[in-house]
TrEMBL record:
To ferredoxins from P.putida and C.tartarivorum, ferredoxin I from A.vinelandii, ferredoxin II from D.desulfuricans. SUPFAM superfamilies: 4Fe-4S ferredoxins. It holds the Pfam family Fer4_ETF_QO. This is Ferredoxin-like protein.
Amino acid sequence: MGIEAQFQKVEEKLYQNRYLVDAGQPHIKIAPHEKPSKNLLAMTHLCPAGCYTEAESGQVELAADGCLECGTCRVLCEESGEITWNYPRGGYGILFKFG
Ligand code: SF4
Protein backbone atom coordinates (compact mmCIF):
# COMPACT_ATOMS: atom_id res chain seq x y z
CA MET A 1 0.00 0.00 0.00
CA GLY A 2 1.45 3.37 -1.01
CA ILE A 3 1.92 6.12 1.53
CA GLU A 4 -0.77 8.23 -0.20
CA ALA A 5 -3.34 5.51 0.44
CA GLN A 6 -2.40 5.33 4.12
CA PHE A 7 -2.58 9.05 4.79
CA GLN A 8 -5.72 10.56 3.34
CA LYS A 9 -6.32 14.29 3.59
CA VAL A 10 -8.86 15.44 6.17
CA GLU A 11 -11.21 16.57 3.39
CA GLU A 12 -11.13 13.09 1.88
CA LYS A 13 -11.91 11.50 5.22
CA LEU A 14 -14.77 13.92 5.91
CA TYR A 15 -16.24 12.95 2.56
CA GLN A 16 -16.80 9.46 3.99
CA ASN A 17 -19.31 10.84 6.48
CA ARG A 18 -22.98 11.49 5.90
CA TYR A 19 -25.02 14.21 7.52
CA LEU A 20 -28.76 14.31 7.94
CA VAL A 21 -29.97 17.90 8.24
CA ASP A 22 -32.74 18.63 10.74
CA ALA A 23 -34.21 21.48 8.71
CA GLY A 24 -35.02 24.56 10.78
CA GLN A 25 -33.70 22.99 14.01
CA PRO A 26 -29.95 23.68 14.21
CA HIS A 27 -28.45 21.92 17.23
CA ILE A 28 -25.93 24.70 17.77
CA LYS A 29 -26.96 28.34 17.83
CA ILE A 30 -24.78 31.40 17.97
CA ALA A 31 -25.84 34.38 20.07
CA PRO A 32 -26.19 37.77 18.37
CA HIS A 33 -23.02 39.77 18.84
CA GLU A 34 -21.42 43.03 17.69
CA LYS A 35 -17.84 41.83 17.85
CA PRO A 36 -16.84 38.21 18.43
CA SER A 37 -14.69 37.20 21.37
CA LYS A 38 -11.24 35.78 20.75
CA ASN A 39 -12.57 32.25 21.33
CA LEU A 40 -15.51 32.66 18.98
CA LEU A 41 -13.29 34.10 16.27
CA ALA A 42 -10.86 31.24 16.77
CA MET A 43 -13.63 28.80 15.87
CA THR A 44 -13.36 29.99 12.25
CA HIS A 45 -10.00 28.19 12.23
CA LEU A 46 -10.56 25.42 14.76
CA CYS A 47 -13.82 23.79 13.71
CA PRO A 48 -12.81 20.66 11.78
CA ALA A 49 -16.02 20.78 9.76
CA GLY A 50 -15.70 24.45 8.80
CA CYS A 51 -19.04 25.35 10.36
CA TYR A 52 -17.87 28.78 11.56
CA THR A 53 -17.06 31.58 9.16
CA GLU A 54 -16.22 35.25 9.59
CA ALA A 55 -18.57 37.57 7.72
CA GLU A 56 -17.40 40.77 6.07
CA SER A 57 -19.01 42.62 8.97
CA GLY A 58 -16.54 40.93 11.32
CA GLN A 59 -19.23 38.89 13.02
CA VAL A 60 -18.96 35.13 13.20
CA GLU A 61 -21.63 33.05 11.48
CA LEU A 62 -22.48 29.42 12.03
CA ALA A 63 -23.93 26.79 9.74
CA ALA A 64 -24.15 23.64 11.85
CA ASP A 65 -24.74 21.32 8.88
CA GLY A 66 -21.82 18.90 8.73
CA CYS A 67 -20.95 19.32 12.42
CA LEU A 68 -18.87 16.37 13.65
CA GLU A 69 -20.02 16.81 17.28
CA CYS A 70 -16.39 17.07 18.36
CA GLY A 71 -17.31 19.52 21.12
CA THR A 72 -14.51 22.03 20.50
CA CYS A 73 -16.86 25.00 20.19
CA ARG A 74 -18.82 23.76 23.18
CA VAL A 75 -15.70 23.83 25.34
CA LEU A 76 -14.57 27.24 24.12
CA CYS A 77 -17.81 29.18 23.72
CA GLU A 78 -20.74 27.64 25.57
CA GLU A 79 -19.93 28.75 29.11
CA SER A 80 -19.61 32.37 28.00
CA GLY A 81 -23.07 32.17 26.43
CA GLU A 82 -21.83 32.86 22.93
CA ILE A 83 -23.35 29.64 21.68
CA THR A 84 -25.93 27.14 22.84
CA TRP A 85 -24.99 23.56 22.10
CA ASN A 86 -27.12 20.43 22.06
CA TYR A 87 -26.81 17.10 20.37
CA PRO A 88 -28.99 16.78 17.26
CA ARG A 89 -32.37 15.17 17.68
CA GLY A 90 -32.38 11.39 17.33
CA GLY A 91 -31.78 10.25 13.78
CA TYR A 92 -30.29 13.57 12.66
CA GLY A 93 -26.75 14.83 12.45
CA ILE A 94 -23.52 13.12 11.60
CA LEU A 95 -23.33 9.47 10.55
CA PHE A 96 -19.83 8.02 10.90
CA LYS A 97 -20.60 4.54 9.65
CA PHE A 98 -18.91 5.12 6.30
CA GLY A 99 -15.44 5.52 7.74
S1 SF4 B 1 -18.88 20.58 17.65
FE1 SF4 B 1 -16.94 20.51 16.49
S2 SF4 B 1 -17.54 20.12 14.39
FE2 SF4 B 1 -19.38 20.78 15.47
S3 SF4 B 1 -19.50 22.99 15.07
FE3 SF4 B 1 -18.41 22.68 17.04
S4 SF4 B 1 -16.23 22.64 16.50
FE4 SF4 B 1 -17.39 22.32 14.61
